[in-house]
Design a protein that fits this description.
By secondary structure, the chain is mainly alpha-helical. Helix 3 packs across helix 4 and helix 4 runs antiparallel to helix 5. A two-stranded antiparallel ribbon has the order 1-2. The radius of gyration is 40 Å and the shape is elongated. Helices cover about 50% and strands about 5% of the residues.
Length: about 220
């Protein structure tokens, strides 16, 4: 391989010959540049086709290092019916439910308190009402989610809200003995059905059997 040099006096260009070692060095450099260019092109194609980065992974400083454990956000616990909760867990859930019922449900859908639509400012004492309103709240959270689609809230109104309020505020429902006049608040729990006659008879027989098996003088 040769390169041009300054023309001689006769106007002809005198070829310059490069040593074989320099020629091999230039060829190696060119091949290296071509390889780097091809690698960059492959990297660009890979980044262009990669899925969006996980925002949680970006907050992990060693997420890209091999051998490091991957981070996965814990799944939220499955919601339970409120009457299956106990202790502090029950109290926290009831407090959250109360905020939603007072600040949203009754504020928007409460309507007027009448004998045909009673209400109780101590509705938390009525366990059946708590269960109904909690189920309504869970359904509300599900149907307001974007994954429920544009008709999500319409379905909630039709299938859940209407039926829940029709039961809770029915004239003969669980709150019928409570407040019917907004000016005169009142709260009273209605007497619920007790154990059946068969259960009562079986309990009485068990008590008699236990009393008959006591040693003489134990009953005194």
């Amino acid at each position: 391989m040769s390169e041009s040099a300054d023309p001689r006096h006769g106007g002809e260009i005198e070829p310059v010959r490069l040593p074989e070692g320099d020629l091999e060095s230039i060829e190696a450099s060119v091949r290296k540049l071509l390889d780097q260019s091809a690698e960059q092109a492959r990297l660009i194609d890979t980044l262009a086709s990669a899925p969006p980065a996980d925002p949680m992974a970006a907050s992990m400083p060693f997420a890209g290092f091999p051998g490091m454990p991957s981070y996965a956000a814990p799944a939220p616990p499955d919601p339970k019916p409120i009457l299956e909760l106990e202790g502090e867990e029950f109290e926290d859930e009831l407090a959250a439910l109360t905020d939603w019922v007072d600040d949203h449900l009754m504020d928007v859908y409460g309507a007027e308190i009448t004998t045909a639509a009673p209400w109780c400012d101590q509705w938390q004492e009525h366990l059946d009402v708590v269960a109904w309103l909690h189920a309504l709240w869970l359904a509300y959270q599900q149907h307001k989610d974007p994954e429920a689609g544009l008709s999500g809230m319409a379905v909630w109104h039709r299938d859940y809200l209407t039926h829940c309020l029709a039961y809770v505020r029915a004239p003969g429902g669980p709150l019928s003995a409570c407040q019917t006049d907004p000016e005169r608040p009142e709260h009273r729990l209605l007497r619920g059905p007790g154990p059946s006659a068969k259960s009562t008879a079986r309990e009485a027989e068990t008590q008699q059997s236990d009393a008959g098996s006591l040693p003489v003088g134990a009953a005194t």
